[in-house]
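S.,

Sequence below, as promised.
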Amino acid sequence: MISEKKFSRSFGPFWMMHLPFFSDYYSSSAVLGEKIHPHIETIETADMRGLTNIIAFIHYKALLQNPSTPVSESIDNAYPIVRYFYRKYHEDTVIRYIHGSDEINQIVQEQALNIINRYPNKVVTDPFFPGYGFMPNCRGDLLVGDSLVEIKAGLYSSIRKPFNPEDFRQLLIYLALNHASDQPYPIKKIELYNPRSGMLWKSPIDEFINIIANKSPIELYQIILFEFENRYDSFNN
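The prediction came back faster than expected:
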């Protein structure tokens, strides 16, 4: 088995062969999307920024259920997940970080509010995509109507694009798994949203896949699924 994030970051020859025009697209201004709100000032180290992002997304999901949920409650609920992903750090370091800074709490609150302002209702959180071949079961971030949304909260600057190539590939993996599902979601559009930088990219699926692969969505899904199945067979022989 291999995670969707590792497959999206690796297997360069596969992606280059089947998305022959993606590099041109990624070099264009289209990949930048649009800025829909001001950015949040970053004070964390690169390592700890990911921790803040995890807590902010958990707080967003709590706000969907109860708009008056305090940040402190979401931090407490996030601790088991944070501790798992940051197990290389001493437990006291993690506890001090998530409980010891009003500035971090403010960033968590701002990010969560930015997400809920963009996606306030009719949201399926953590949509499930059954595994296929060597790709295990996966969960996306959000399904909003007929749009599949991934939340990415990395840095963005004049020399760094708001989204990475693997972010787009991750969406394609979910779409292929959805196509193979017995109960697929009716997804027609895809979005990448960064609540930290305020950047939003979105596209109809068929338009995006035609631009980067010159294929129909079903053609590309079948290629991705064949890769999942073929590599699974090779790993087991």
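The chain has a mean pLDDT of 89.

Coffee later?
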